Amino acid sequence: MVMITDILKKPEANALFSIVIGLGIAALLFHRVRKEYTVPAIDTDEIINSIQKRNGKCYRFRIVDASEPSA
């Protein structure tokens, strides 16, 4: 089995290793912070109390618990 120290003694592998480490450090230093955006939404009471007509059919929305049932 080849040891990592034996691989790093070669100049080609040493250069490749330096590039990988450099890209990792650059990614850590120059990454953008993820921003959170607020999206305006319709009030849930307004949706529940309304009847919507689409394609000739009437729809009434309701809230249903979407959590997984316990096993």
Entry keywords:
71 residues; alpha+beta; two-stranded antiparallel sheet; 3 helices; 2 strands; 42% helix; elongated; membrane
Structural class: alpha+beta
Report low-confidence residues grouped into runs of 5 or more: none
Query: Span between N and C termini?
Result: 46 Å
**Anisotropy-based shape:** elongated
**Largest beta sheet, briefly?**
2 strands, antiparallel
Specify the helix fraction band. Answer: 40-55%
E-strand count: 2
Order of helices and strands: HHHEE
Strand order of the largest sheet: 1-2
Taking Cα atoms only, what radius of gyration do you get, to the nearest Å?
A: 28 Å
Tally of alpha and pi helices: 3
* Average residue-wise pLDDT: 83
Integer tally of domains: 1
Fraction in beta strands: 5-15%
Keywords: Membrane, Transmembrane, Transmembrane helix
What can you tell me about this protein's structure?
Keywords: Membrane, Transmembrane, Transmembrane helix. This protein has 71 residues and is α+β, with helices and mostly antiparallel strands. It has one domain (4-60). The chain is 42% helix and 11% strand. It has three helices and two strands. It has helices spanning 4-8, 11-30, 44-48; strands at 51-54, 57-60. Strands 1-2 form a two-stranded antiparallel sheet. A hairpin with a 2-residue loop joins β1 and β2 (57-60). The two termini are 46 Å apart.
